[in-house]
Design goal:
The complex is a heterodimer of chains A (306) and B (326). Chain A is mostly helical. Chain A has 13 helices and 2 strands, in the order H-H-H-H-H-H-E-E-H-H-H-H-H-H-H. The radius of gyration of chain A is 23 Å and the shape is globular. The chains are: A mainly alpha (306), B mainly alpha (326).
């Protein structure tokens, strides 16, 4: 999956920033470009669904029930005669929203906690390490289900928690541990670097050192981590919705798989196939881009390859 | 060695207490009082009082200050908070709200079914994926390598639910190679567990092979591998005699990482194939909003995971004499 970098490439790349260099490396590889386009299409579909241009009429009956895939109905129809194609498109909105908001929540918890634990030694570090060791000791799926179970149907500051809100809150609140551990380890390394010592000598405040000096130097790890974690968020949404703890009243890919379970015994495989294809395609593209991003942004790994 | 094991054991005490704290917040603080919800709309006051008593919600939350002021120290700690810790640490869980069975008895009677699925799945998954990873290491750097890695990524992109649904429908229902669902204890269990086990192995194979391939390739960059090749040893000999032995160290440490996958696998597979194990117990408890059962299961699975990590660390220090706990 990795591409040999020629000598001339390395000499040209001097003087470019990490980001523009990484971007060039990504565009060098055909498979990555194709994957980026696939992701772009999914994002456009999701935005289209938000604006109501695409799949707005997903709940309309378009033909007889249990109709197989054809030119007229695309992926066929489900048990209520609704178009499976529209439901699949609509699912892109749910999946990407969940993965995106869950990532934001997770970064908002993991990044500051990791940076604080790494920068301040002593009891603060020990407390945060204890916290993430504890959370990571509860098997992920059990933790997610327990959180979903407890939060479903409650109100938070007068705002009722149900459906998709619970899904992204649950995934976000349970998935910050990996990032926190990663950032803490990296900040510990950076704390003793010359540039941090220099900033300290200038009299910068601790908050300024962390926010303006250290975080910009570790932020690429956040991007790598989340490009790879996006896939697990999408799959978690599917499982939660399938178990009835997630999205209700809207067609997500997990809901589609749940519907398909009943339909399979009538020989209707298309709804399951459509959902599997959609999940598989976006996951594949995200996996490829995530791996490529890691190769492109992690200079240590790059040296190992050259 | 003994001192290492003792210190490692002590390290897991704060983690276990932390897990209990998390479950307390989850099941006692956030939900408030679930008794009304559990009792149903037309419940009498006595029923609700019974449920409150059974769940311990009639006790003070943290500390019985009234008892403390009267000087009864032992009674003062008879609160929700302390009982939560005491019950879990003595494995003396309350009774299930739906079946009225003791949770601990239920867990014991269901454990064999879970293990008969999880153990073959785990062993099969690890052995197959290491074997395939070694094969991939043979063809490292060729187009076949790229193709196999691509297939792995495709395999891990497909959700596990799809594997299970397609497998159950086509292999069991249409082709009739396996029973569709059900379970029998004893030797007959093999028949029922075969398909879920195969599906579990198949759905995990992609990420496992890819992971072990990296482990093998990292190991192959070492000097001793170059020396072995320079001596003129054949590639199978280098891979099996040299690389595999040294790769066992990182492989052992990562075995524990697969425990969460096993839980997820067992949870979904047990539900689909009606295997009366702990996974289906957990999901049934969800559907009937059985708080005590979910609470106990979260604690028990976490305890298993912590113990798994403990055993791994001890194995690691046995295999690699350089490791010591600072």
């Amino acid at each position: 999956m990795t591409e040999a970098v020629t000598q001339s490439d390395v000499t040209i790349s001097k003087g470019r920033s990490l980001w523009s260099d990484a971007w060039r490396r990504l565009l060098h590889r055909k498979l990555v470009v194709v994957s980026l386009m696939v992701i772009a299409v999914f994002v456009l579909v999701a935005l289209g669904v938000y604006s109501g241009l695409i799949a707005g009429a997903w709940d309309k009956q378009v033909g007889p029930r249990y109709e197989g895939p054809s030119l007229k109905h695309g992926f066929g129809t489900d048990f209520l005669g609704r178009s499976v194609w529209r439901k699949t498109l609509y699912g892109a909105k749910i999946s990407l929203t969940v993965a995106f908001v869950a990532s934001l929540i997770s970064i908002c918890i993991g990044l500051p906690l990791g940076a604080i634990a790494g920068y301040f030694k002593g009891w603060i570090d020990e407390l945060i390490v204890w916290l993430f060791t504890t959370v990571s000791s509860i098997p992920y799926i059990i933790l997610i289900l327990a959180f979903a179970f407890v939060l479903q149907g409650r109100t938070l500051f007068g705002y009722p928690l149900r459906g998709i809100t619970v899904v992204y809150m649950v995934i976000g609140l349970t998935s910050w541990v990996g990032l926190c551990r990663l950032i803490r380890g990296e900040v510990i390394k950076h704390r003793e670097r010359d540039y941090v010592i220099a900033a300290r000598a200038y009299g910068c405040s601790k908050a300024r050192i962390i926010l303006r000096h250290i975080i910009p130097n570790v932020v690429h790890l956040v991007i790598i981590n989340f490009s790879l974690r996006f896939v697990s968020f999408i799959h978690a949404e599917v499982i939660l919705s399938f178990l009835g703890l997630g999205v209700k009243g809207e067609p997500s890919w997990g809901v589609m798989i749940d519907d398909a379970r009943q339909e399979l015994y009538r020989g209707c495989w298309w709804q399951l196939a459509a959902a599997t294809l959609a999940i598989g395609l976006i996951s594949l593209a995200l996996n490829i881009v995530g791996d490529a991003l890691r190769d492109a942004l992690d200079p240590k790994l790059r040296q190992g390859l050259e | 060695m003994t001192s290492y094991i003792i210190r490692r054991l002590l390290y897991s005490v704060p983690t276990i207490l932390g897990i209990l704290l998390v479950t307390f917040v989850l099941f006692n603080l956030i939900p408030g009082d679930p008794s009304y919800e559990l009792a149903g709309k037309s419940a009498s006051a006595e029923t609700i009082a019974d449920i409150r008593h059974e769940l311990g919600f009639d006790r003070p939350r943290f500390l019985d200050t009234e008892a403390l002021s009267q000087g009864r120290i032992a009674a003062a700690f008879d609160s929700q908070f302390f009982n939560h810790f005491r019950n879990a640490l003595t494995l003396n869980f309350p009774r299930s709200l739906t079946s009225y069975e003791h949770i601990w008895d239920e867990i014991r009677s269901r454990a064999p079914a879970s293990l008969s699925l999880a153990v073959p799945m785990f062993v099969g998954l690890v052995v197959t994926s290491i074997a395939i990873a070694l094969l991939v290491a043979f063809v490292q750097g060729t187009w076949l390598d790229t193709l196999l890695v691509f297939i792995c990524v495709v395999g891990m992109s497909i959700p596990m639910l799809s594997y299970i649904l397609f497998g159950q429908h086509y292999l069991a229902y249409e082709l009739g190679w396996f029973p569709i669902l059900g379970y029998e204890p004893g030797a007959q269990a093999f028949k029922y567990v075969a398909l879920p086990c195969l599906l579990g192995i198949f759905s995990g194979l992609g990420s496992y092979v890819r992971f072990y391939r990296t482990v093998m390739l990292d190991e192959m960059r070492n000097d001793y591998v170059r020396t072995a090749f320079a001596k003129g040893l054949s590639s199978p000999r280098v891979l099996f005699k040299h690389v595999l032995k040294n790769a066992m160290i990182p492989i052992i440490t990562t075995l524990v990482l697969s425990i969460p996958f096993l839980f997820l696998g067992s949870l979904l597979l047990e539900r689909f194939f009606s295997i009366p194990g702990m996974g289906s117990y957990f999901i049934d408890a969800f559907n009937s909003r059985d708080f005590p059962v979910i609470n106990a299961m979260v604690f028990m699975t976490s305890l298993l995971y912590v113990l798994g990590q403990l055993v791994t660390d001890i194995c690691y220090s046995l295999v690699d004499p350089r490791i010591s706990l600072r």
